[in-house]
Amino acid sequence: MGLTAIHSEGGFFKARLSFPPEFPLLPPKLKFITPMWHPNIYDDGTVCISILHAPGEDQYGYEDAGERWLPVHTVESILLSVISLLSSDTPNLDSPANVDAAKEVRNDIAGYRKKVRRLVRRSAEEAFD
């Protein structure tokens, strides 16, 4: 059974999108302020998706240059990518940002779902504080 809609349904996730002085040549950084538990989000809330990685070749060989940041990307394309990340039933477990969350997806999907549902509920309760 996949992970579809577990991450986003009913949740209110606060995040900060920070733009470097070199924008649009370099990508912004997106960091969740709301606590998140996802294989592709670091413990500090930083989102790890290709579109937010600096342009050029990936030194580890996980991404093609065309998957990474390009100056034609917009805030809309970033947000759509993050929405896709949160609603995908196939998080990237090959090169996770949060190794513990990736292990939990592989080994204890029920525990993973429980933890995520708890965070979603908490985000909804604190959304307008």
Automatic annotation (TrEMBL):
The active site is at C48 (glycyl thioester intermediate). This is UBC core domain-containing protein. Belongs to the ubiquitin-conjugating enzyme family. It holds the Pfam family UQ_con. It comes from the Eukaryota. Keywords: ATP-binding, Nucleotide-binding, Transferase, Ubl conjugation pathway. SUPFAM superfamilies: UBC-like. GO terms for molecular function: ATP binding; transferase activity. Residues 1-125 form the UBC core domain. The keyword Signal does not apply.
